[in-house]
Amino acid sequence: MIIITQPGVSRDSPVFSELTEYLAALPGISTSLHEVHGTEQTVTEIYLIGNTAALEVEDIQSLPGVEQVVRVQQAYRVLGRHLDDRRPTHFDYNGVRFGQDTLHIFAGLCAVDTREHVEAMMRALQGHGLQCTRMGAYKPRTNPYSFQGHGRACLRYVFELAGKYGVRVVAMEVTHESHVDEIREALEQTGNPTGVMLQIGTRNTQNFELLKHVGRQRDFPVLLKRGFGITLEESLNAAEYLASEGNRRVVFGLRGMKSSLGDPHRNFVDFGHVPVVKRLTRMPVCIDPSHSVGSRDRAPDGLLDVFHVTAQGIIAGANMILVDFHPQPARALVDGPQALHMSELPYFVEDVRIAREAYLKRSELAASYAVPSG
Ligand code: PEP
Ligand code: MN
Q1: To 5 degrees, how large is the angle CA 296–CA 299–CA 303?
Q2: What is the distance in A from the centroid of ligand 1 to the CA of 108?
Q3: Distance CA 329, CA 266 (A)
Q4: What is the pLDDT of residues 342-362, one digit of tens each?
Q5: Which of 132, 286, 335, 364 could serve as 320's disulfide partner, Cβ 3.0–4.6 Å?
């Protein structure tokens, strides 16, 4: 059971003490506190652990200082959606809102290679009014002899260039906890010109020690990608690891499943799960059409498969798109064959807009119909 306090009830107020004293006297129940900072207000969530089945929601609801009481189902205690749960489905970071009803395009380089390519990318983003990008510095590679990313060496110029072109959030994968410190340090050294969303890739979805470390820091939000060979439930539990350590600013990323049944796509596209994740949890959902499809193959209607699956994810309500672009794909050090070309950026943005409009119309239509009972 979760108790959410009324805004303005601070931890040192008499009302709060009265409430916690009452809870402390309940047999077989222990509590843990968590402060949730929104842009306008801070509230405290009190987690009741133990024999909560014996408690009546109405009794707890009538206690002083209580705004809301949520009876938690077993799954995804923090990030899940529970009965009568009115907790938010969004968070704000560096002036950008990420929620279950927003949409952001993170077009960028799979891997940072040269400063010139980073600058060309950032300039193009600004030219098309985009505020977010992806930039891989630490690359988890299947082959130990493949390019592993420039790591720390490229961070400063990536952040400076992001700031120069008005990019507010850079999604960047981390594969080790030391990378978080390196990113924080480089941001400080450059005067925090941009923000970073830490990405945990599909190979690390169940790296629990990394999850705990990234979950304990609150500076950066996290994009957690679904594990490519585990169940959705297992991946959502991995997201819950981040939240249970304190970081609730988590976006869940769909990037396809590893299975030869998806051939000729690189991974079996799983964007049908966008609404499922939104129903089960309060996380915004990201799709990664580049790593799902893995090629520039084109359908007979003239649309690239990458465009097709992007639209499929958006029309199902996706909130974020991670997509590979490159100024010179033939010279990219990682994933050049799946990258979109810079000249395709305005076309991509327009195609996304069309799909989003269709989604918004679909949800309006759904809202105009009464929900049938049963
Ligand atoms: C990536 O986004 O660069 C990446 C490696 O993705 P994934 O973890 O989904 O393979
Ligand atoms: Mn890649």
Answers
A1: 70
A2: 13
A3: 18
A4: 999 999 999 999 999 999 999
A5: 286
